[in-house]
C-alpha cells in the first residue's frame, strides 16, 4: 500500500473523504484526552495524522498559485472548515460533562425546559467557539506551508506547523473568556481545558518537559511526532535506521515498504508511551528520599448544594468539628488542614463564637501550630459577594485571606448574552441567580502566607487550576500548592473530575511543587512535585485524607520564565516565514 499514492485520490472533487479524515482525527484526539475509564493518551501521538492527510493532499499544493492570483478565499474557507470539523467533534466529546449541570435549579433557574435549552446552547456554543481556532490552525498551516521553497519543507513541517498550533492554542486560552464575557470575567490565557498536552498527564517525559516549557512545549512535541509519522507514511521520510537494525539482526532481510514504516511507527509509540514509566519510578524514588516534608490533612465533603437549610448547615458544621478533633487526636503532626471550596467553616465558627473564643478553640485543640485553610461565601462592605479563602494559624488566629479572582461563567456569574436570553424568557431566574450566585472578582492576587514551621503557602481556588499563569504567580514565594475545589455544579461528574486531575498533575510538574487538593463532590488527592499521585481518596464520600508531601528546594525553569520562551520561539519562526514569503513575492 502506498500512502503517497492514496493521498492523491483525496482531491477537491472528493471533499467527503477530507471531512471524514478530519472527523477521525477529532475522534482519536478526544479519546486520548483524559476523562475515560482507561488511559488512551498514546492516541495523541497519531491523532493529527488523518487531519494532515486531509490538509496536505496534492491538490492543496497549488495554493501559492491561487495566492498570487487572488483566488485564495474559497480555498482557505475549505481548509478552515476541515480543521473546524476536527475541532468541533473533539470539543463536543470532551465537553460532554456540560449535560451533568442540568437541571440548573441551584443557579436560580427552576424551569427545567429552559434549563435544558440553556445547557445545550452553552455546550454547542462552547464547542463551536473553541473549534474555530482549529479551523484557523488548519487554514494557516497550509497557507504558510506554501510560502517556503520545496527544499525548506522539512523545516516547516517540524518547526512551523507545531508553532502555529501552539499560538492558536494560546489564543484559544484567551478566547473562551471572551466568548463568555460577563461581569465576572478575568481576561487572560487562563482557559487551557482541552489542551492536548493534558492527554499525557501519565507520561513522565511530558511532565518533565513541562517543567521547562509548560504545556505549550509538550504540545509542540506532540504535533512534531504527528508530523514525523505523517511524513513516514507518505514516504517523504524512510525509516532506514530501523531497516539497518533489522538487517543486522536478520542478515539478508529486505525492506518491505509499508510494513517497515508501520513497524517503525508502532515502535516509536511504544517507546514514547512505556519508557517514561521507568523515568517515573526513578523520579518517584528520588522524591521519597527528600528530607523536607509537609504533613497534611484534607477534609473532603459531599453536599450538592451550597444553599443549605439552617439544619443542614448545622449538621455539616458539626461534622467538620468532629473531623478537626479527629485530626488533632490521631494526626497531631499535621501542618496543613485543607477544606474544600464552599466549606464555610470559618464563617460558621464566627457565627457561634467570638474572636476570643475562636482563638481559644484552636489553641486548645492543637498543641502544635497548624494552618487551617477553608473557603466561605462572604459579602463585603459594598454588598459584593466574594468567594473568600481564609487562612488561620491555630496558635495565632487568622493570618490573611484571598478573594477568588478567576470566576466560572454560569457557576459564579452569568455572561452578558446569557443574561439577555434569560431576561427574555424568565427574568425572575436572573434575579434569583444574581442574589444567590452572582460573585464579584477579588481585588488582589493571592499573597504568600507563612507558617511557624518555615514554609509558605498561597491558596488556589477551583478554576484557578486551569490557568498555568495564575498558578505560576501563586507559586512564587510558596512551597506547596493548596487547592480548594467543588464540582457540585457538575453533580460529581467523573469526566470533569478526571480531566481536572490531569490538569493538576501538570501544574505540580510545571512548577516542581507538591500539590494537595480538597474536593467537594469529587476526589481529594496529593500530587508530588513530579506530577505523581501520592495519595487519593477512595470515593467521593465525606472522608479524611492524611499524609505527607516532599518539598523541592529549587524552582523549575518554567517557574522562572513561564510560557515566554516557547511563545517567543514560535512567534520568531512565524515572522521569519512571513519574511520569506515577502521575498518570494518580490522575486516572482
How would you describe this protein?
This protein has 588 residues and is α/β, with parallel strands linked by helices. It folds into two domains: 3-286 and 565-587, no CATH class; 331-401 and 446-550, Carbon-nitrogen hydrolase (Nitrilase/N-carbamoyl-D-aminoacid amidohydrolase), CATH 3.60.110.10. The chain has helices at 3-8, 15-32, 49-55, 63-68, 73-94, 112-145, 153-179, 204-233, 240-249, 258-288, 310-330, 345-352, 355-365, 416-425, 427-437, 468-475, 494-511, 557-561, 564-587, and strands at residues 293-300, 336-338, 371-379, 385-393, 397-403, 449-450, 456-461, 480-486, 515-520, 525-527, 533-536, 543-550. The strands form two sheets. It has a six-stranded mixed sheet. Strands 6-7-8-9-10-11 form a six-stranded mixed sheet, covered by helices on one side. Helix 2 runs parallel beside helix 5 and helix 7 crosses helix 8 (204-233). InterPro entries: Apolipo_AcylTrfase, C-N_Hydrolase, C-N_Hydrolase_sf, LNT_N. One of its GO terms (molecular function) is N-acyltransferase activity. It is a multi-pass membrane protein. The chain crosses the membrane at residues 20-36, 42-58, 79-99, 119-144, 156-181, 213-237, 258-279.
Amino acid at each position: 500500500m502506498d500512502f503517497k499514492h492514496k493521498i492523491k485520490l483525496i482531491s477537491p472533487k472528493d471533499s467527503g473523504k477530507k471531512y471524514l479524515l478530519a472527523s477521525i482525527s477529532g475522534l482519536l484526539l478526544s479519546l486520548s484526552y483524559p476523562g475515560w475509564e482507561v488511559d488512551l493518551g498514546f492516541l495523541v501521538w497519531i491523532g493529527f495524522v488523518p487531519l494532515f492527510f486531509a490538509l496536505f493532499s496534492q491538490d492543496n499544493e497549488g495554493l501559492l498559485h491561487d495566492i498570487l492570483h487572488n483566488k485564495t478565499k474559497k480555498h482557505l474557507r475549505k481548509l478552515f472548515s476541515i480543521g473546524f470539523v476536527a475541532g468541533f467533534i473533539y470539543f463536543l466529546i470532551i465537553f460532554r460533562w456540560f449535560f451533568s449541570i442540568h437541571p440548573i435549579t441551584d443557579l436560580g433557574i427552576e424551569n427545567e425546559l429552559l434549563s435544558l435549552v440553556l445547557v445545550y446552547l452553552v455546550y454547542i456554543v462552547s464547542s463551536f467557539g473553541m473549534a474555530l481556532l482549529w479551523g484557523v490552525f488548519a487554514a494557516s498551516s497550509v497557507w504558510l506551508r506554501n510560502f517556503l521553497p520545496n527544499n525548506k519543507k522539512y523545516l516547516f513541517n517540524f518547526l512551523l506547523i507545531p508553532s502555529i498550533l501552539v499560538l492558536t492554542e494560546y489564543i484559544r486560552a484567551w478566547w473562551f473568556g471572551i466568548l463568555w464575557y460577563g461581569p465576572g470575567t478575568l481576561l487572560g490565557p487562563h482557559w487551557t481545558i482541552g489542551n492536548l498536552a493534558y492527554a499525557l498527564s501519565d507520561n513522565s517525559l511530558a511532565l518533565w518537559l513541562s517543567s521547562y516549557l509548560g504545556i505549550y512545549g509538550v504540545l509542540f512535541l506532540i504535533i512534531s511526532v504527528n508530523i514525523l509519522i505523517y511524513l513516514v507514511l507518505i514516504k517523504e521520510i524512510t525509516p532506514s535506521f530501523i531497516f539497518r537494525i533489522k538487517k543486522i539482526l536478520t542478515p539478508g532481510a529486505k525492506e518491505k515498504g509499508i510494513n517497515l514504516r508501520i513497524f517503525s511507527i508502532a515502535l516509536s509509540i511504544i517507546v514514547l508511551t512505556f519508557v517514561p514509566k521507568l523515568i517515573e519510578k526513578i523520579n518517584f524514588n528520588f522524591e521519597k528520599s527528600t528530607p523536607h516534608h509537609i504533613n497534611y490533612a484534607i477534609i473532603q465533603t459531599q453536599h450538592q448544594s451550597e444553599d443549605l437549610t439552617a439544619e443542614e448547615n448545622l449538621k455539616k458544621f458539626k461534622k467538620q468539628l468532629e473531623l478537626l478533633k479527629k485530626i488533632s487526636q490521631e494526626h497531631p503532626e499535621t501542618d496543613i488542614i485543607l477544606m474544600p471550596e464552599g466549606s464555610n467553616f470559618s464563617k460558621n465558627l464566627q457565627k457561634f463564637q467570638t474572636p476570643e473564643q475562636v482563638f481559644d478553640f484552636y489553641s486548645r485543640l492543637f498543641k502544635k501550630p497548624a494552618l487551617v485553610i477553608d473557603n466561605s461565601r462572604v459579602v463585603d462592605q459594598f454588598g459584593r459577594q466574594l468567594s473568600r479563602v481564609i487562612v488561620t494559624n491555630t496558635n495565632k488566629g487568622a493570618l490573611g485571606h484571598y478573594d477568588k479572582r478567576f470566576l466560572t461563567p454560569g457557576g459564579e456569574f452569568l455572561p452578558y448574552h446569557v443574561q439577555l436570553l434569560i431576561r427574555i424568557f424568565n427574568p425572575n431566574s436572573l434575579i434569583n441567580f444574581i442574589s444567590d450566585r452572582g460573585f464579584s472578582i477579588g481585588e488582589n492576587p493571592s499573597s504568600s502566607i507563612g507558617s511557624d514551621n518555615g514554609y509558605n503557602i498561597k491558596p488556589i481556588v477551583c478554576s484557578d487550576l486551569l490557568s498555568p499563569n495564575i498558578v505560576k504567580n501563586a507559586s512564587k514565594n510558596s512551597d506547596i500548592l493548596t487547592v480548594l475545589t467543588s464540582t457540585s455544579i457538575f453533580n460529581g461528574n467523573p469526566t470533569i473530575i478526571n480531566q481536572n486531575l490531569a490538569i493538576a498533575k501538570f501544574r505540580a510538574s510545571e512548577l516542581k511543587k507538591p500539590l494537595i487538593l480538597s474536593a467537594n463532590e469529587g476526589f481529594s488527592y496529593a500530587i508530588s512535585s513530579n506530577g505523581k499521585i501520592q495519595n487519593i481518596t477512595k470515593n467521593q464520600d465525606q472522608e479524611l485524607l492524611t499524609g505527607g508531601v516532599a518539598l523541592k528546594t529549587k524552582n523549575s525553569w518554567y517557574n522562572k520564565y513561564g510560557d515566554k520562551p516557547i511563545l517567543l520561539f514560535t512567534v520568531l519562526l512565524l515572522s521569519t516565514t512571513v519574511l520569506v514569503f515577502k521575498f518570494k513575492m518580490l522575486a516572482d
